[in-house]
Amino acid sequence: MLKAGIDIGSVMTKCVIVRDETVIARAIGRSGTMPEIIAEKVLKEALSQAELDYSDLDKIVSTGYGRHIFSKAHFTITEISAVAKAVFHIMKTGCLIIDVGGQDTKTIEIDGSGEIVDFLMNDKCAAGTGRFLEMMAGVLETDIYGLGKLALQADKPVLLNATCSVFAESEVVSLIAHNEKKENIAAGLFNAIASRIATMMAHFNKNVPVVFCGGGANIPALKNSIEKISNRKLEIPEYPQFLVAFGSALTF
User: Does residue 47 share a domain with residue 150?
Assistant: First the structure.
């Protein structure tokens, strides 16, 4: 079967084309203010990569914040169910999933059958999400990946006291004014978000593998901070930002 999985996230929209449980094409675009149009665009791009047309698809499954707005989808599924499906397909065992997205962070435990045992979401505050890192990167006059590169060069990460993104921004501005090195500030920011994630992880089984996915998994500095603070090793599947889209395509 040929299926398309589309993850319409709050920041990025991802699409995969799947043939018999194997991804044959993928595309991504910024959701912006017209997510349905972007979803259409990334679907067309993925189809073009695979040298296919709409008529070749057996099913289109949408997920993410904007899953209900994509009129071409035959089915919808929550992103929690989708990422659990994808990770179990890869891992074949029970595990803890950390999914760091633009506007929320999810920790999801699945059992040896792939069923969801429990989950937690940090979706009420930007702190602890990709958006938090984007905001702080702007203050340091770089982007989120530049922020990660700075953090890897730190020699003495600062300790940030603020737990709110608004106050954290003021704290970072103050640190810059006091000539603190950008590298140490960046490392402190990753440690702050990692501390929030480690607190969420502590509610779950400590004896299962931990799988890190979402856009945040593309930043080595964040992985390093989470591993250091939680004292647990993180496994990152290939193309971690596309796992939710992949899981949606596997579901129906």
Answer: no
